[in-house]
Amino acid sequence: MPNYRYRGRGRRGESLSGVLDALSADAVAGQLMNSGITPIDIEEARERLDVGELWRRLRGPVAPELAELVLLSRQLYTLMRAGVPLTQSMTGLIRSTRNVTLREALIDIKSTVESGRELSLAMAQHPRVFSPLYVNTVRIGENTGRLDEAFSRLAEYLERERDTRSRIKSALRYPSFVLLAIGIAIGVINVVVIPQFAQIFARAHVVLPLATRIIIGTSGFFVAWWPLLVALAIGAAAGFRVWVKTEAGAYQWDRWKLRIPVVGDIMHRATLGRFSRGFSMSLAAGVPLSQALSIMAQAVDNEYIGERIRHIRNGVERGETLTRTATATGMFTPLVLQMMAVGEETGAVDTLLAEVAGFYEREVDYDIKNLSQTIEPILIAVLAGFVLLFALGVFLPMWDLAGVKMQR
Q: How far apart are CA 320 and CA 312, in angstroms?
């Protein structure tokens, strides 16, 4: 709804002003009169377009972060637990939500719910905001009359997901800065430093070592062709983004990500932990096994693992056991497969999958804590190799020149 700025007089004649959201100026006048305020002037409030707002409009709608969805789920759980009507709860959430995409989705959901449709159906109309796992958990909560518990489970699940992603990003931040610094240093040396040494060596008319010739040739190539290299880098980055958005590109890239040394294994286990936790939550909520697998294939955020989960679903639909189809994918360790088998035999698959999720989460947490210690020796080796190459390529000829001058 648009905002209207008003000026008016109170019961005692005092001057009052403010901003109200309403469908029209007449509706604002009615609200003011009911509050004992005599309106003098009402005009639509023009939104100021600052730099931040201009940037947000240029980059388009931004999906809400996990922290915002966690807060939304917690608030809905608290409000419904307290007996506040759903539409009234949505009104308060719309006013307090800062993310534009989420606020617009909540406005549309509130309108849909007021028209008599289900909350889960209204959320399903906004796949950019609410995942299939979120929507189906809400649907189960509606059908069982335990919608507040559904939001509580979603908040816990999303909070674990946010914590895992945050820890991985924190662990990779230091190596990323080091690699960026090394890249900048290599660029400055190639463009600024090496050409100066090349001029000195050219005037000396001496035979240069192979390492020196390679360094000078590389530097000359960068200096001569840097505009083309920058254009190629930008084009490659744009092409990569387009390729990743295709079905085949997303599948291949997600598969390669899991093979990155050191980090890929952590990402793999974190994704399997997410699958186990969400799968357990879906089964505990009463979602059928086949449907729960379909939901998790979309919720794991990795097309390669999602395809493996769909293979598990197809096997289950053919009448095979969950453990056998999971074994055929090659994704799980023998310990996890054994726990799945016990869960199938005892009818407690959801409980044991929650244990599997905890197992993966503890492993990932331990590896993340030691990630910096694992990467640091690799970075030191890379930096040492760069320094050694520079020393051999530049300082050895300088020492040779110094030796020739001393002989003279």
A: 9
